[in-house]
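Q: What structure does this chain adopt?
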Amino acid sequence: MREILIRVPEWIDEDFIKLQIERIISIEKRRRELIEETLKKLSIDEEDLKELERVREDVWKEEKKRLGL
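A:
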């Protein structure tokens, strides 16, 4: 796993940031597992996978806006 360095302003609780990042990683892990399982069940090829990823990104952008992320 990679490591990143994040500069956090003094007025933000560091533990809160860590918790939010852990939540995001957990959500992304579950999302990837769901996609991989779905691909296996549907026998989707590489081209279909690229299109699915594009759609997923579009949907995620809209969800981030809706959630204020």
